[in-house]
């Protein structure tokens, strides 16, 4: 495993982080809690230090699972969670009102069974709450010792500039993968110029870049709604992705790695990416994801993947 400092903070994080959306049991299908706990512990044993979660994942269920998993190993984990998005049945509600933020952090601390969160992040912008009000409350909570560092997710450059004028942030969490690279134009250069870290999510495009699907999946599990968030699974996009997945498989075979490991390795070695968050439903996936940091793609292979990615993205319907 490789480690990097997150932005200008003293948080040293693994280049492969663990995303926990699946443990909410409401977007990526059902996962038995004990299996999730074993996956989290396997990831930590394999060198993963950064665990990212959110109250919106299963209406707090993922946080509860993480809290149980890190009991006794809290000192080995950089813990990141979020505020500003909660569940109302199947709906995601964005609410960065001061009252909501305070309620959410207290609930998160309780579910995670910790006294302090290492990285507290705004999950999504809330157009109905002035950002000044949200930041004022967040700074109060920081002074109270509820969290160490502040980060944001899914912010564009204009909002990054706006919040940076009010307070220090150390990181952004954007979606980024071989199938989703729009942040390369403005956002990644901004992060580099301002010494901000990044925790990229969607590294495997919801699982499509793992290469495990021989045909377009139907996701019959009623709790599996990933296709609604990751458009690569749409009928019109599925054929467009296959040339990239074929290339991933070919390069992976050269290193005796999996296509998923190859896609992760490409992501963690892109300029401006500190950590690539990847989900793991079981111990095997957790260990394989962690091992993605342990080999080096050649410059020619990186270039080939990047060029094929460009061709595929141009033809996607997103």
From TrEMBL:
<dbReference type="InterPro" id="IPR036812">
    <property type="entry name" value="NAD(P)_OxRdtase_dom_sf"/>
</dbReference>
<feature type="domain" description="NADP-dependent oxidoreductase">
    <location>
        <begin position="16"/>
        <end position="306"/>
    </location>
</feature>
<dbReference type="InterPro" id="IPR020471">
    <property type="entry name" value="AKR"/>
</dbReference>
<dbReference type="Pfam" id="PF00248">
    <property type="entry name" value="Aldo_ket_red"/>
</dbReference>
<dbReference type="GO" id="GO:0016491">
    <property type="term" value="F:oxidoreductase activity"/>
</dbReference>
<protein>
    <submittedName>
        <fullName>Aryl-alcohol dehydrogenase-like predicted oxidoreductase</fullName>
    </submittedName>
</protein>
<keyword id="KW-0560">Oxidoreductase</keyword>
<dbReference type="InterPro" id="IPR023210">
    <property type="entry name" value="NADP_OxRdtase_dom"/>
</dbReference>
<dbReference type="GO" id="GO:0005829">
    <property type="term" value="C:cytosol"/>
</dbReference>
<dbReference type="InterPro" id="IPR050523">
    <property type="entry name" value="AKR_Detox_Biosynth"/>
</dbReference>
<dbReference type="InterPro" id="IPR018170">
    <property type="entry name" value="Aldo/ket_reductase_CS"/>
</dbReference>
């Amino acid at each position: 495993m490789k480690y990097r400092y997150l932005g200008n903070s003293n948080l040293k994080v693994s280049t492969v982080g663990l995303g926990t959306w699946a443990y909410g049991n409401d977007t990526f299908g059902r996962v038995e809690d004990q299996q999730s706990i074993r996956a989290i512990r396997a990831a930590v044993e394999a060198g993963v230090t950064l665990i990212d979660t959110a109250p919106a994942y299963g209406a707090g269920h993922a946080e509860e699972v993480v809290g149980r998993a890190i009991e006794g190993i809290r000192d080995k984990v950089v813990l990141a969670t979020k505020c500003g998005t909660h569940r109302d049945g199947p709906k995601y509600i964005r609410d960065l009102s001061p009252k909501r933020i305070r309620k959410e952090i207290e609930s998160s601390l309780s579910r995670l069974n910790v006294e302090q969160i290492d990285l507290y992040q705004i999950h999504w912008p809330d157009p109905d709450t002035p950002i000044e009000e949200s930041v004022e409350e967040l700074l109060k909570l920081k002074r109270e010792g509820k969290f160490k560092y502040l980060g944001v997710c899914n912010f564009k450059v204009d909002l990054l500039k706006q919040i940076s004028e009010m307070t220090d942030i150390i990181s952004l969490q954007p979606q980024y993968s071989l199938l989703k690279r729009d942040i390369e134009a403005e956002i990644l250069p901004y992060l580099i110029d301002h010494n901000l870290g990044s925790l990229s999510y969607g590294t495997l495009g919801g699982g499509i870049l793992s290469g495990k699907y021989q045909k377009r999946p139907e996701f019959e599990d009623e709790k599996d709604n990933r296709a609604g968030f990751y458009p690569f699974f749409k009928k019109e996009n599925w054929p467009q992705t296959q040339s990239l997945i074929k290339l991933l498989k070919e390069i992976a075979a050269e290193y005796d790695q999996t296509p998923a490991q190859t896609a992760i390795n490409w992501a963690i070695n892109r300029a401006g990416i500190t950590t690539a968050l990847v989900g793991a439903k079981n111990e095997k996936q957790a260990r394989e994801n962690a091992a993605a940091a342990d080999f080096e793609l050649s410059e020619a292979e990186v270039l080939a993947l990047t060029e094929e990615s460009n061709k595929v993205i141009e033809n996607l319907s997103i």
